[in-house]
Write a structure and sequence with these properties.
The complex is a heterodimer of chains A (811) and B (153). Chain A is α+β, with helices and mostly antiparallel strands. Chain A has 3 domains: 180 residues, Aldehyde oxidase/xanthine dehydrogenase, a/b hammerhead (Aldehyde Oxidoreductase, domain 3), CATH 3.90.1170; 365 residues, Aldehyde oxidase/xanthine dehydrogenase, molybdopterin binding domain (Aldehyde Oxidoreductase, domain 4, 2-Layer Sandwich), CATH 3.30.365; 142 residues, Aldehyde Oxidoreductase, domain 4 (2-Layer Sandwich). Helices cover 26% and strands 22% of the residues of chain A. Chain A has 20 helices and 28 strands. In chain A, helix 15 packs across helix 16 and helix 17 packs across helix 19. Chain B folds into 2 domains: 75 residues, Beta-grasp domain (Ubiquitin-like (UB roll), Roll); 68 residues, [2Fe-2S]-binding domain (DNA polymerase, domain 1, Orthogonal Bundle). Chain B has a 5-stranded mixed beta sheet, with helices on one face. Helices cover 34% and strands 15% of the residues of chain B. Chain B has 5 helices and 5 strands, in the order ββαβββαααα. The chains are: A alpha+beta (811), B alpha+beta (153). Chains A and B meet through helix 1 and helix 17 of A and helix 2, helix 3, helix 4 and helix 5 of B.
C-alpha cells in the first residue's frame, strides 16, 4: 500500500474570525513538528487495511463460514428483578433441528466479572431486563428462535430498583442478596483526599456548587457482537470473537467454564467498531462456547441490534455534586465531589470508570486540595461497561462547567481562569500523576483564537448563539490497572526482505495496525509497504493487556519500536561485514543500507537478510521486545502515577438555541489536541473527528430511555446517534509536545475527543441562553423547559454518605 | 420459488423461499459477504446495494421484489481488480476506519454520483444520512466523496 498523496492542509490564519462559521472552511492545522526529519512518521499514510475494506473483502465474524455451523440464540429475562423458580427446556429439546438447549441447570459455570457477581446463565435470579437465562443452538436461526419460545421459565417477580440514590437506601430491594459480603446495593466505594478541603474552603473568595448528571448511553458499533466457537475433536477450543482484551478473555473463559486455558485459541476477526463495547468477556461469549460444547458442533451467536442495546454493556450514568473554590485572583483552592455512579446489575470493569473520573476531579488544572466520595450502586438495569472515555466525559461535564461558572462569579474570562490554573510540564499532581509533556495552555490559546472567543463570547445572546469551552486530561501513556501494562512485539525479516511485525495489540478500525507499521518502517529505514502486521491470533501473538485506555500507540508502539531497532541492529551487524565498514558508520534509507560517508557503497536489506540466513551457521533475523511503561498501580488511597503520559486538549463549541423549541444546533466545534507527536496525522484527525461526533451525540441526542427498567426503544432509529447531517466539520489542531517516553514522542488519542464535548456544548448553551444545563443529552424539550423555568433543570440532589442519602427525582 | 436475477453482471437462476430477503440471498446464497448488516430494520444503511442504479437497503427488500432486475453490490464496484474512483478516494482520505459501514457508504455514494456529478457538501450529507458511521464523524467520508466527484468530472 503506497502512502496516500494527501496534502497537509495548513490551518487558517488564527486571526481569521471572519471565516468562523463558514460552511466549507477546513481548519486543519499543519503539525508543529519538522516532519522532514522522518521518512515515514508524520506522513498522511492511508490505512493498510483500507483497500480490503472498500472492496468488501474484509472478513468480520459474521462472514466466517465453516462446515456444520449452528446458529445460537439467547432467552433473556423479561423482568428487571425476579427469582427463577424453575426452567423447563424439555419441549425445546424435542424440536427437530435443535442440537443443544442450555440453562444454569445443565451447564458447568462459575461466577465471572470484576466482583465475581455474574453468571453467564442466571441460576437463582435475574437482575435486569435482558439478563441471560437459557440458550439454544439449532440448524438455523428460525429453529433456534422457535425453540426459545418453547422454554418455560417460572419467575417470581421481585420489587426492583432503578434509581441509584434509592438503591443506596436501606429500604431498597437488595439485588445481590446471595452475597453477604456486599452491603445493600453498594458495589464499590471510591474515597480520596488530598490536602484539607474544609480548611481551603474557609480561604476561598468564591465557591460554586451544583449537580451534574449524565445518561445511560451505548457504544453502538455498527457491527453487533458476533461470536463463533468450535471445539476440535481433541478438545482444543477456538473462539472467533471481536473482543479486544484477548489474553484476559482466554483466561476468564477457562476460569468460568472450567476449561484448560492452554487449549484455547482466541482469534480476532476484523472488528466492525467497538468503542469499548467489545472490550472484555461477556455472558454471550461464555454461552457461545457452552453451546459449542453441548452440541459438539461449531456455533455462531450473532446478537441482533435490539440485543446489542438491551443485552450488552453501556456507559454508566454518573451523578456529580461538585463544589469548586478559588481565591480572589482566580487560583483554584479546592474541589469537592460527592458522586453516585449508577452501574447497573453487575460489576464488569465499568465499575472502575471512577478511576478515570477521579483523575479529572483531582488533576484537571492545578488543584491543591480535593476530596472525592463516590458510591457505585447496583440497580436493576443494563450494567456499565468500559465505553470510550471511561467516566471522563461525565466528570468533565461537571468540572468544566464549574470552571465557567467560577469565572463568571469572579468576573474573569473563563479562558484566563483556565490558563492561570493550567497543568504544566513537570507538575506532579496531588494524586501523584506525573505530568511530563503538556500542551494544555497551547491548546487553550489555539481554540480561543480560532473561535474568536475574546470578541464573541457573551455577545451573541440576542441571536440565541453562544460559545462554550472545555478542556480535558486523559491517560495517554497506558493505564496500569493490571499487574502488567505491557505489550509484546516480534519483528522478523525473512529471505524476501519482507518485514513482519507480530504485535500483541489489536486493530479495531482505529488504525493501530498502520501506526505500528509506520513505527517499524521508520525505525528500520524501510518503506511502509514492506511491513506486514500480524495481530489477530493468541497462538501467534505475544501477550498484551489489550486495547483500552488509549494505550496502543504508546505501549504497543514502544514495543514495536524496540523490536524493530533490535532487528535492524542484527541486519547492520551483517551489513557491516559485507560492506567492511563499522556498523556505526552505516545508515538505512528506503530499505537500503549505505555507508553514510559514501552512499555509493550500499546493499539492499533483503540481500543482507539472505546473506545472514543462507550460509553455514546462519540464522533468521528475529527480535522480540516487551514494553511495560514505568508506572505504578495506585495504592489504597488512589495515589500513584497510573500512566506514563497524559493527553490534554481543549474544545470550543458554538451553538444556536431555538428559544421556541429548545433545539440546540451545534454550528462549530474547534478542537486542539496535544497528541505528543502525530505519527499519522490523518489517523489522529480521524480519531478526533470521530470522537467529537460521538461526543456531539452524547451532548445532544444519545440516551437509552429507560422506563421501569425497560429500554423503551432499543433501535437505531430512536437512539439518537448522529448522522451525516447532524454534525458540523470539526476543526482539528494537532499540537505536538513530543513526549519524552512516547514512541517518536507520541501519546494516545483514541478516546480524547469525545470527553470535553458535552461540557463545551453545555457551556455554549449557557452562554446562549443564560441557563445552566445540569444534565445531558440536551434534548429540545429539556432545554425548552430550562429556558421557560429560567433556571437550572432539576432539583438539587446531594450524593452524601450512603447512610444519610436524600431522595430525588430520576433526572 | 424459482427466481432469476442479475448480480454484478452475472445471471443467477435459483430456487428460494418466498420470504428470502435480498440481503440473505446475497450473503447466504451467493456468498457475497461484502454487503453488511447492522440492524435489519433499515436504519443503519450498512446493507445498501444498487437495484437498477438506485440505492436500496437490502435487509428490507424481499428477493422476489427485485426479480429480473440488475443488482450491484460492493463486489461489483471494482473494474478488473482496480479500485474505482470512489473506493480509491475512501482509501486515500481515511474514509474507512473499522470498515463496517464502508460498503454501504460506497454504494450510496455511487448512486449519488450517478444522479449528481458535482454534489455540494450539504447534498452529500443528505445523500449519506441513511448510512450510519460511528468511527469517522463523517468528515473524511465527505472529503472522499468530494474527491471522487472531482476526479470523475
Amino acid at each position: 500500500m503506497a502512502p496516500s498523496c494527501c496534502q497537509v492542509r495548513v490551518g487558517p490564519d488564527l486571526n481569521g474570525a471572519a471565516e468562523v462559521g463558514s460552511d466549507r472552511w477546513d481548519g486543519r492545522a499543519m503539525p508543529a513538528s519538522q516532519v522532514d526529519e522522518f521518512q515515514v512518521i508524520g506522513k498522511r499514510v492511508a490505512k493498510l487495511d483500507a483497500p480490503a475494506k472498500v472492496t468488501g473483502r474484509t472478513v468480520y465474524a459474521d462472514d466466517l463460514s465453516m462446515a456444520g455451523l449452528l446458529e445460537g440464540a439467547i432467552l433473556r429475562s423479561p423482568h428487571a428483578h425476579a427469582r427463577i423458580r424453575s426452567i423447563d427446556v424439555s419441549a425445546a429439546e424435542q424440536l427437530p433441528g435443535v442440537r443443544a438447549v442450555i440453562y444454569a441447570g445443565n451447564v458447568t459455570q462459575r461466577p465471572f466479572g470484576y466482583s465475581h457477581d455474574n453468571l453467564p446463565l442466571k441460576r437463582d435470579k435475574v437482575r435486569f431486563i435482558g439478563d441471560e437465562v437459557a440458550a439454544v443452538a439449532a440448524i438455523d436461526e428460525e429453529t433456534a428462535k422457535a425453540a426459545l419460545s418453547m422454554i418455560k421459565v417460572d419467575y417470581e417477580v421481585l420489587p426492583a430498583v432503578f434509581d441509584p440514590f434509592e438503591a443506596l437506601e436501606e429500604t431498597a430491594p437488595v439485588i445481590h442478596d446471595e452475597r453477604p459480603d456486599i452491603v445493600g446495593n453498594l458495589s464499590m466505594r471510591w474515597d480520596y483526599d488530598a490536602g484539607d478541603v474544609d480548611e481551603a474552603a474557609t480561604r476561598a473568595a468564591v465557591v460554586v456548587e451544583g449537580d451534574y448528571s449524565s445518561p445511560q448511553a451505548a457504544p453502538v458499533p455498527i457491527e453487533t457482537h458476533v461470536i463463533v466457537a468450535s471445539f476440535d475433536p481433541d478438545g482444543h477450543l477456538t473462539v472467533w470473537s471481536p473482543v479486544h482484551m484477548v489474553f484476559m478473555y482466554r483466561k476468564e473463559l477457562a476460569d468460568c467454564l472450567g476449561l484448560d486455558w492452554r487449549h484455547i485459541t482466541v482469534i480476532q476477526p476484523s472488528v466492525g467498531g467497538s468503542f469499548g463495547g467489545k472490550i472484555d468477556i461477556d455472558s454471550h461469549d461464555f454461552i457461545t462456547v457452552l453451546l459449542a460444547r453441548h452440541s459438539g458442533r461449531p456455533v455462531r451467536l450473532a446478537l441482533s441490534r435490539e440485543e446489542e442495546f438491551t443485552g450488552t454493556r453501556t456507559r454508566q450514568p454518573i451523578h456529580f455534586h461538585l463544589r469548586t473554590g478559588a481565591d480572589a485572583e482566580g487560583n483554584l483552592l479546592f474541589r469537592d465531589a460527592e458522586v453516585v455512579s449508577d452501574n447497573g446489575a453487575y460489576n464488569a470493569w465499568g465499575s472502575h470508570a471512577m478511576l478515570v473520573a477521579m483523575n479529572t476531579v483531582t488533576s484537571m488544572y492545578r488543584v491543591p486540595n480535593s476530596r472525592v466520595r463516590c458510591s457505585v450502586a447496583y440497580t436493576n438495569k443494563n450494567y456499565g461497561g468500559s465505553v470510550r472515555g471511561f467516566g471522563n466525559p461525565q466528570a468533565t461535564f461537571a468540572v468544566e462547567q464549574q470552571m465557567e461558572e467560577l469565572a463568571d462569579a469572579l468576573g474573569m474570562d473563563p479562558m484566563d481562569l483556565r490558563l492561570r490554573n493550567a497543568n504544566q510540564s513537570g507538575d506532579v499532581t496531588p494524586q501523584g500523576l506525573e505530568i511530563t509533556s503538556c500542551g494544555l495552555s497551547d491548546c487553550l490559546r489555539i481554540v480561543r483564537e480560532q473561535s474568536g472567543w475574546d470578541q464573541r463570547r457573551g455577545t451573541m445572546r440576542g441571536r440565541h448563539r453562544g460559545l462554550g469551552a472545555a478542556a480535558f486530561i486523559h491517560v495517554g501513556g497506558g493505564a496500569r490497572i493490571y499487574a502488567s501494562d505491557g505489550c509484546g512485539a516480534v519483528v522478523k525479516v525473512d529471505d524476501s526482505g519482507e518485514v513482519t511485525l507480530i504485535t500483541g495489540a489489536s486493530e479495531l478500525g482505529q488504525g493501530s495496525e498502520t501506526v505500528l507499521a509506520m513505527i517499524v518502517a521508520e525505525e528500520m529505514g524501510i518503506p511502509i509497504d514492506s511491513v506486514r502486521v500480524v495481530n489477530s491470533n493468541t497462538d501467534v501473538k505475544p501477550w498484551d493487556v489489550g486495547v483500552h485506555a488509549s494505550r496502543t500507540t504508546f505501549v504497543a508502539g514502544n514495543a514495536a519500536r524496540m523490536a524493530a531497532a533490535a532487528a535492524r541492529d542484527k541486519l547492520l551487524e551483517t551489513a557491516s561485514e559485507l560492506l567492511e565498514t563499522p556498523a556505526g558508520e552505516l545508515r538505512v534509507r528506503d530499505g537500503v543500507v549505505e555507508v553514510a560517508a559514501d552512499p555509493s557503497r550500499r546493499i539492499e536489506l533483503g540481500r543482507v537478510a539472505r546473506r545472514r540466513l543462507l550460509r553455514e551457521g546462519g540464522g533468521v533475523v528475529m527480535a522480540t521486545a516487551f514494553y511495560d511503561p514505568p508506572t505504578h498501580n495506585q495504592d489504597k488511597d488512589y495515589r500513584g502515577n497510573i500512566s506514563a503520559a497524559y493527553g490534554f486538549g481543549a474544545h470550543v463549541a458554538e451553538v444556536e438555541v431555538d428559544p421556541g423549541t429548545g433545539m440546540v444546533r451545534l454550528i462549530n466545534l474547534w478542537t486542539a489536541h496535544d497528541v505528543g507527536r502525530a505519527i499519522n496525522p490523518m489517523s489522529c484527525e480521524g480519531q478526533i473527528e470521530g470522537g467529537a461526533a460521538m461526543g456531539i451525540g452524547l451532548a445532544l441526542s444519545e440516551e437509552l430511555v429507560i422506563f421501569d427498567g425497560e429500554i423503551v426503544a432499543p433501535n437505531l432509529h430512536d437512539y439518537g446517534m448522529p448522522t451525516a447531517v447532524d454534525v458540523p466539520r470539526t476543526v482539528v489542531n494537532l499540537v505536538e509536545t513530543v513526549d519524552p517516553l512516547g514512541p517518536f514522542g507520541a501519546k494516545g488519542v483514541g478516546e480524547a475527543a469525545l470527553i470535553p464535548v458535552p461540557a463545551a456544548v453545555a457551556n455554549a448553551v449557557a452562554d446562549a441562553t443564560g441557563v445552566r444545563p445540569r444534565e445531558y443529552p440536551m434534548r429540545p424539550w429539556k432545554v425548552k423547559a430550562w429556558i421557560d423555568a429560567g433556571e437550572s433543570s432539576h432539583a438539587s440532589r446531594r450524593a452524601a454518605e450512603p447512610a444519610d442519602k436524600g431522595g430525588g427525582d430520576n433526572g | 420459488m424459482r427466481i432469476e436475477i442479475v448480480v454484478n453482471g452475472d445471471r443467477y437462476v435459483k430456487e428460494v423461499m418466498a420470504d428470502l430477503s435480498l440481503l440473505d440471498f446475497l450473503r447466504e446464497v451467493l456468498g457475497l459477504t461484502g454487503t453488511k448488516w447492522g440492524c435489519l430494520t433499515g436504519d443503519c444503511g450498512a446493507c445498501t446495494v444498487l437495484v437498477d442504479g438506485e440505492p436500496v437497503v437490502s435487509c428490507l427488500q424481499l428477493l422476489r421484489q427485485v426479480e429480473g432486475r440488475d443488482v450491484t453490490t460492493i463486489e461489483g464496484v471494482e473494474h478488473s481488480g482496480e479500485l474505482d474512483e470512489v473506493q480509491a478516494a475512501f482509501v486515500a482520505n481515511g474514509g474507512a476506519q473499522c470498515g463496517f459501514c464502508t460498503p454501504g457508504m460506497i454504494m450510496s455514494t455511487e448512486a449519488l454520483l450517478r444522479a449528481n456529478r458535482s454534489p455540494s457538501e450539504s447534498q452529500i450529507r443528505e445523500a449519506l444520512s441513511g448510512n450510519l458511521c460511528r468511527c469517522t464523524g463523517y468528515s473524511k467520508i465527505i472529503d472522499a466523496v468530494l474527491q471522487a466527484a472531482a476526479e470523475r468530472a
